[in-house]
Amino acid sequence: MSRRRTTLLGAALLAVVLSACSGTDDPAPAAATEPSADASATPTETASPPPAAHHPDVAPARLKPLRAGEKRITMTMPETYTPSAPTGTGTDDYRCFLLDPHLARDSYLTGTNVVPGNPDVVHHVILFRVPPEQVAAAEQQDADTEGQGWTCFGGSGLEGEFTNPDDAPWLGAWAPGGEETTVKTGYGVDLPRGSRIVMQVHYNLLAGASPDMSSTQVRVTRRDPRTTALHTFLMPAPVEMPCRPGRDASPLCDREAALADARDRFGAAGGALAQGLHFLCGSDVVPSGTTECTRTLGRGMTVHGVAGHMHLLGRRITIETNPGTPEARTVLDVRPWNFDDQGSRPIEPVHVDAFDTVKVTCRHAQWLRDRLPAFETQREDRYVLWGEGTTDEMCLGMLQVAFDR
To answer: Is-contact 289 241, C-beta < 8 A?
Structure first.
């Protein structure tokens, strides 16, 4: 596949994956014990209870000491925002707030933290970089929307923000119980003078709608030629999970019907992305609970951190470099998958050259819908494709990398 074709598809793809799960269902942790024999049977084991981090009495994250040359900038919403479901139905509101770190010089971002104003409604937060050339458009988006911020399912909602699938504008992510994250000394994410930061807050309304005034804290240090720039490299794979035998009577167990349903809920991109990922990965449509994608790298890079992303039906995700060769390395292996634990994991640096391969593999299970509260209104099996809703699925590997110079 040509680099241009990959980039065009990646631009469309990134417009939905970076929101880390939009939807109208309550995300519950997918940490149940898998049946050992009959996968179509309802398991007797119960799902693990939600982690304590979901409760509002959890202590705030403890900040780490600043390192030489670092300073911490705190940015707070200028006034409270009361979330509501944008369509009038559902229990989720994704809202983007434009924040200004007032950078006086070109800088590197070296750490992030989030301080939720109202833990009863703040479910998770993602931070996006807005480069100086996109600030005017972001300010106009904010001004054109009534109230604070704007609705932003599928990323920050800024036109043209995603143009390169190998270098996403993701700065950091946080979920209740999360700690301040920092990069290794000598590394940072480029943050030019005049940049802004979009704080995308996922509000969950199951406990009711109440006002919030959250803050974001970032560590920055002045730009130094000795600092190595870090980038986010995304690795998606298609999802083609069929209904279980004996539970396939629903019309939505048909793949074409599931594609049509995705288009109804998310527009043309819903079905297009489910199809297009096969084009990106060079794979055929094969219904299975296991999916994978292998990408050949266009440039050399060193991997410093890894993360995975699936939804509630996820069971395991792995990322391998140069699979099937003597140089094969497994850099991520999360099992069982826990929806509430999607943070990046630092690893000992792994270098890969141009034309090396990286592979992401995901395993999903339909039986989880029998046990998780988010599926109380969707117990009936359906053909599961890549989709933006929490009760749809994704398979996404994320690498924190430094490109070869």
So the answer is: yes
